[in-house]
Amino acid sequence: MNKQLSKSDLSLSFGRSINELRMAFRKHMQGKIRSLDLHLTFEMLEVMLCLWRQDGVNQQVIADITLRDKSAMTYLVDNLMKRKMIRREEDAKGRQLQETLQPWVSEMYERATANMDADTLIAGKDIIENMIKNLST
């Protein structure tokens, strides 16, 4: 017998799928990072991606974009600075890393959305944003 799922069950399943997708992204990129022996975490890569998109932004902006609290962001930035991957001004090592990893990140997202058109992606994004808005009010 085919049981009709409630909105609550569907919402739970949808949320779980979002988490599974994030874990799949993480696993995919960690494999790529490991293959180059970069000693970089997925979280550090997220910070680097923010800086590659918006060079010169402050820690709070990066924390907001990556959905991290300020203390976690401080830890990540400190680690990246210790590894000489970022500094307060443009850094060649960080730019070199961008040339290597940015194509992999783009390929991952292209692969993840290969059978979807732009309207489908926009609709999915709208659904998630509405759910966030509903929980924020």
The appropriate CATH architecture of one domain is Orthogonal Bundle
How many distinct beta strands? 0
Oligomer: single chain
Strand-residue proportion: under 5%
List the helices and strands and how they pair.
Blueprint: H1 7-35, H2 42-53, H3 59-66, H4 70-82, H5 92-112, H6 118-136
Helix pairs in contact: 1-5, 2-3, 3-4
Name the features.
Arc Repressor Mutant, subunit A; mainly alpha; 74% helix
What does it look like?
There is one protein chain. The protein has six helices and no strands. It has 137 residues and is mainly alpha-helical. It has a domain at 23-101: Arc Repressor Mutant, subunit A (Orthogonal Bundle). Helix 2 crosses helix 3 (59-66) and helix 3 (59-66) packs across helix 4 (70-82). The longest helix has 29 residues, at 7-35. The radius of gyration is 18 Å and the shape is globular. The model has no long low-confidence stretch (mean pLDDT 85).
Concise structural overview:
The protein has 137 residues and is mostly helical. The protein is 74% helix and 0% strand.
